[in-house]
Amino acid sequence: MDDLTKPNDPSPLNEASLSSLAATLPVPTYDRSALTPGIVHIGLGNFHRGHQAWYLHRLMEQGKAHDWAIVGAGVRSNDAAMRDRLLAQDCLTTLIELRPDGTSAEICGSMIDFLPVEEGNGALIAQMAERSIRIVSLTVTEGGYFQDAATGSFTPEHADIQHDVAYPDAPCTAFGAIVAALKLRRASGAGPFTVQSCDNLRGNGTITKAAVVGLAQLTDSDLANWIEEHVSFPNAMVDCIVPATGPQELALARVLGVADAAPVTHESFRQWVIEDDFCAGRPDWDLVGATFTNHVHDYEAMKIRILNAGHQVLANAGELLNVGTISDCMADPLISAFFARVQSEEIVPHVADVPEMTAPDYLTLITGRFSNGAIRDTVRRVAYDGSSRHSGFILPIVRDALEAGTPVSGLALCEALWCFMCLGTREDGSSIEANDPIWDLLQRTAAAAKDDPQAWLGLSQIYGDLGANERFANAFASWLSHLHDKGPSHTLAHYVQS
């Protein structure tokens, strides 16, 4: 399916159209009507459908895991629109692989239902309480775990958590719904399920456990102790670049012959490294390329530091210079040189090798993936929620570098670029729209930092005590002053040439 020169007459995507679509696209060969649910997934975005759902689909194609089908769920009001789109096409998804040398597609059928998105999450709680559900997985973004950005600890003060404490049977968060379902399962004898985070967080299972057990402790200490003893929270590393879906992706699906209201485009690379800690069983994902290991943290660190931190190195510079996508950033001589120097001098030295890959070799792999012009991954998407992404991806490296006495100048510049970006104006004078859950606070603080750089580092919920480190604070202040005096292009050139 590499010839995209002629648009096809698109067929609506649904169960009834699979037989006709099979003439041009790979479609599920298993009997979807015979699938039964084993997984509830909360947060049905593109990444889940292009990653975990794909691994399960591949396993089903081998005649396995037919009792592990996915039931989708969401706890945010805007999840309802995704539910409507997917139910209208029988929860099928067109996965479109974008390679520099061509494009191909397939239809993924491992998801079989999407629960109502409703206040109090009654349907979600009831489904998770069913004995057949053995895994509850999540993609709720890096900022969705109610953790202190500086320390990583659970933050029960959040208004949503306080709501769930007051109304434990009608919670508003995914974690409140999980606690409520586990309470029902303990009472009924259905037993525990595994809670599996698929978000880009180092120690994502540990962080998820802190949120679930911490919330349960606030309402029912006996239940919290039962969860602590019986429920599994495996750590995992997930990886696949999956851009947001917009008009271009919808049109591409139609060119491929499918009228899909929610297609997913993705790169050809996927990786899933998981701790084998599942209290109620699991699919054999290792048969289709996943890796089960007790050394997830080394894989996590390599990916989060080189790829995810690398995304932030590129995105803030790209936004300020009005460069639209990550691949465009890699094609820009100034931004790519900035990326290469920060990575090689200040990030890679703090990344351990894994059995299959050295850190420098992984950087080479990531450089190629980021340079794939077929992937139109927008700078705006990558820069979104910098308050979570910088604290999770960049600042741990800064702390390690300060402790080791190694350079931090490029990382300090990355933070200064983020601060400067939050002023909301690009170098060409165009406006940057709000792009963070705490955008108003960031914008006010960035304005104050023009005269007092310490105001930005004083965002303790992000920087913790880093602002008190003289070496880092001085480097940050110097770069921020340079940005205000000379502008982003001149500042980046100065760093690259110094």
TrEMBL record:
Record keywords: Oxidoreductase
EC number(s) stated in the UniProt entry for this protein: 1.1.1.67
Ranges of residues in domain Mannitol dehydrogenase N-terminal: 38-286
Matching Pfam families: Mannitol_dh (PF01232), Mannitol_dh_C (PF08125)
MF-aspect GO terms: mannitol 2-dehydrogenase activity
Domain Mannitol dehydrogenase C-terminal: residue ranges: 295-481
PANTHER family per record: MANNITOL DEHYDROGENASE 2-RELATED (PTHR43362:SF1), MANNITOL DEHYDROGENASE DSF1-RELATED (PTHR43362)
Identification of the protein by name: Mannitol 2-dehydrogenase
Species: Pontivivens insulae
